[in-house]
Amino acid sequence: MKVCLVYSDVGGVAHYGARKYYHGLGYLSSVLKQAGHETALIYLWAEPNREEFLQRVRDIDPVVVAFSATTHQFPYVAKCARWLKESLPGILCIVGGPHPTLVPEDVLANPDFDLVCVGEGEYPMLDLVTALQEGQDIAHIPNLWLRKEGTLIKNPLRPLLQNLDELPFADRDLFDFE
After folding, report:
1. CA of 128: how far to CAs of 54, 106, 139, in Å?
2. Cα 22 from Cα 147, distance rounded (Å)
3. What one-character-per-residue DSSP string does 22-81 give?
4. Strand order from edge to edge, sheet including 64-68
5. pTM of the predicted model, to two decimals?
6. CA distances from 42 to 48, 67, 90, 117, 167 (A)
7. Do the Cβ atoms of 57 and 88 come closer than 8 Å?
8. Which of 17, 24, 63, 79 has its CA 20 to 30 A from that of 89?
């Protein structure tokens, strides 16, 4: 299954002088790839353009678009999710990262997000993509919050990973650095 990961770093390149490598998405990608899924990255280093963003998503042709958001980047992420729901409503939109983990109810109040990942995302994302691929219910995956039939489902957190060596090496190819 194809998953599009979106990293919002609007203004970061101008401020820091270079693109960043974000380990969180690198680990998400490596866990998904190890299970046979495909991942691609959209790196938002400048204010996103609606048509360019949507075309990049169309080119990737994902089933899931997964955003990572800090608080100051959340407005850009929310804008992109709105564009997706307006133009490609069949794509499942999930958001994780520091901001959604801290205020998941506020984030899920935005109807453009189908799911919020609270806390660690590697295995919840794998469980989500696997469940979608197998046609299973996604409503009870730990760490994921969602709306279902007008009800907010707040799944409990799974235990934190104790042995980080069980994760595959982070996917460094995802960010396409030389």
Report:
1. 23, 22, 9
2. 28
3. -HHHHHHHHHHHHTT-EEEEEEE-SPPPHHHHHHHHHHH--SEEEEE--TTTHHHHHHHH
4. 38-44, 2-8, 64-68, 92-96, 115-117, 144-148, 151-154
5. 0.93
6. 10, 9, 19, 19, 23
7. yes
8. 24
| Residue type present at position 23 | H
Give mean pLDDT, residues 167-177.
87
Question: In whole angstroms, how far apart are CA 8 and each of 150, 158, 160?
Answer: 29, 26, 25
Model pLDDT, residue 178:
67
144 strand-pairing partners: 117
Identify whether the C-beta of residue 94 lies closer than 8 Å to the C-beta of residue 64: yes
Q: How many other CB atoms are found less than 10 A from the CB of residue 117?
A: 25
Taking the C-alpha atoms of residue 54 and residue 6, their distance in angstroms, rounded to an integer, is: 12
Phi, psi of 9 (to 5 degrees): -135, 40
**Residue 17 scores a pLDDT above 80:** no
